[in-house]
Amino acid sequence: MKSLLTKSRYICGLRCPKLLWTYCHAPKTIPEPTQLTQFYLTQGTDIGILAQQLFPKGRAIRIDNFSANLRDSQTFMSLGIPLFEASFLSDRIYARADILEPTEEGAWNLYEVKSSTAVKEEHLNDISFQKYVFEKAGLNIKSCSLIVINNHYVFDGTLDIRQLFKIENVDEKVEALLPEIPRQVSSMLDIMDRNICPQTKIHPLCKGNRYCEMLEVCTGNLPKNNVTSLVFDSENNGIALLNKGITAIKDIPDSFELPAKQQIQRDCIITNKAFIDKENIKSFLDGLTYPLYALDFETVQGAVPLYSNSRPYQSVPFQYSLHVKYHENDELHHYEFLHDGPTDPRPALLKQLKSDIGTEGTILVYYDEFEKGRLKEAATDFPENKEWIEAVISRIKDLFLPFKAFHYYHPDQCGSVSLKKVLPALTGVSYQDMEINKGEVAPAAFMKCYFDDLTTETERSHIRTELLKYCSLDTEGLFLIIQELRRLIEKDEG
Ligand code: SF4
Which domain holds residue 247? Predict the structure, then answer.
């Protein structure tokens, strides 16, 4: 039997023929979703189930058996109640609806649940395809709506489903997309029926709003410091160069005009030397005052708020690391906080931070929007702390800025100005052997500690050790960077 075009395949097909073909013919060659992607997938499923409560008379159709689901969907249509997970097939196109609600005229309102906070283009393509399939299968779809998360909702301890979600009618946008679907469907079925994978070149959608899961496979043969790692490449120079047959940044000809930062990147690779704008780096370093602190938060967030007095997807700090040197030649002192339990971490965290962080001296962070954002939220949510939090915010200096501005660049940064690349390139200290080695992994680790009944005490203790190790390196790393930048400046002055 020829394979079916489902809505997830349709979305893949809109992105790339090679991706669609691979999902149909060689799915095992697609890398497994990361721990973080898996976390979001599970969250999406949970949100879908929660949204069913908006339709209290609805009935869920079993999804563990493809044929039974199709059969029951037909059977239950006559019940005159909302149906969850009803699926329909027409020739080779197939879709399963999150929610179908019957209307008095015998038609159906179609709802698609998304765990994001706003309607995205991909969601519109998704629901348009569903409407197309269902109408082909004989249903009359009267309206199409997306159910998304309302991130203005403030959780007060009792979940109010009607406030957690917002329903957005998208009929007009769907109508605009429908005429294109038959052509897309026919072209995708043709791709799916081929025996050979389409040879699609790297294109802007490979990175797009989110990286394609096949990116590493498709760029696997490219050398280190290849053109896809050109920094701040909003003009897609990397893709233009690939399509000209140029893969390595070092091989980009002088005649190819690059923006200033990409030019520095290329020169560093060719000379295998770091670039440093000493004047600007010195000016940044001269602006630091002692006691000098380095601060980093780890946060957790959920589509459904975890704590009272917080909103969906609000990043709630559960941990911080704080290194400090009271004088320039002082040794490094370390303070840290990691909440222990499923309760709101903010009151205890704020109390300890207030005492640890003092009242004067620069507070270094890397990418200040994040730390400042969390502190501003804390000042709003716990107004009794407003005064000292505002004073803390005014002391913050962002070490990310000199790297973002390319006042320093090392070829080993491979086109990234993130701390995870800057620290090892500049100091040789890396996150490589750490179990938790990315900020995105920390929330899932914390959730596993306190929101997963199956986690044992031994596992919890191990995760806590790893979280403390990871967050500590983030702030110690800022001091190592400062120290190395000072050494580079003084080396030439001496
Ligand atoms: S990385 Fe690009 S070319 Fe490769 S499958 Fe994904 S979208 Fe297609």
Answer: 204-260
